[in-house]
Input
Amino acid sequence: MAAQATANPRILLLVTGGIAAYKSCFLARLLMQAGFSVKVAMTEAATRFVTPMTFQVLTGHPVATDLWGERQSDALDHVEYARWADLVVIAPATADIMAKAAHGIADEIVSTMLLAFPGPVLMAPAMNDNMWRHLATVANLEILTSRGVHFVGPGSGWLACGTVDEGRMSEPEEILTAVRKLADGLPAAAMSADDAATASGFWAGKRVLVTAGPTHEPIDPVRYVANRSSGTMGYALASAAIGAGAAVTLISGPVVLTPPRGLAGFRAVETAADMAAAVGEAQDDGIDWLIMSAAVADFKPVNFAPGKLKKDVLGDGWSLALTRNPDILGEVVPTHPHDGLRVVGFALETDDMVGRASVKREAKGMDYILANDPTAAGSGFGSENHQVTLIGGDGIIWESASLPKEVLAGEILQQLAQADQKTGE
Ligand code: CTP
Output
């Protein structure tokens, strides 16, 4: 069982009214990718810059926007989120919220939650340079610092008022780094008890191999057989696993994505044969989990023409002879066996999704399979969102909502962790 001490802290992200609120959407996404659970509350002014729906979709939780449940939010208990959280991050933190926090004013949802929260607070100020230097703000900063409130930024740069000066909110990556530092310093007892199988504890130190993207099977030097996989799901899974503390190797077919930071290894491959060889080598080096999200081409051209095939030679019609590629999961993975390896595959099915995916899981020796119907609403190629059904030896384990792939990746890892811990009990 995952111990309470290994749970990742829960973060209450408080968003106040500044143009930098849009950057907090990226921050929410980064925090989720890093394996944190995130809930959001916004001031009314913040909702003028970014809609609560954006944060709701990103975090998968309702967003608290007022004390009385009269506007977009449900009538949430106004301190419920404050009780839930282990860490509060205020980004952007306006001069106004700093003043309220310094003087104990609780007159709307964000300041109320803040006053009701006894734990560590990180503020990312964002305001006009004169407001930042105003003696009132300086005094409030002093009060807050003396009470142990943590600050990240502000930095210098272009401000919304058109000047280049101090007052710009730190970039989401910098805020994430500050959050990580604070989270590392939290005593285990302060961490949340439920979500015990949160991805972080389970995945920490695990060697995870992720494959992503399509493979290209060359016909001649300028043509190839391929499919429409973009690689985003695999890259999101690799990124989420890094955030959860795993040592991640990514083997990628040709995609236009930038590999996530913090990978333990990266291999760019072109064909199914290249990918098969790279997976075998990684297995020999030692891995704990294989997440096979690549859309490996099942067939390749029988012959590769070393010179470009000209259409006057090909004639009016052209039949391309194809032959089977190696099945990496079915044929390559079993030839590099080692104890304790967990294998996760994907299935794309348009008919009898669960039945066919279950048969595929069994046939290819996978522990878990993530099935997806590309024709279903809120899923499929090119769609921002994705929906999956996780299936194990005993049938359906979990059906996800239709979520942005980055958010879904974190949830998949959490579900896999929970499922695997149950199996091991
Ligand atoms: N896969 C693989 N090697 C291949 C083809 C697929 O390892 N040559 C993996 C994929 O990465 C995925 C799983 O097998 O995790 C299922 O792939 P899919 O193409 O849906 O299954 P197939 O068995 O090829 O069946 P079909 O295309 O007929 O649905």
In short: The chain has 16 helices and 21 strands.
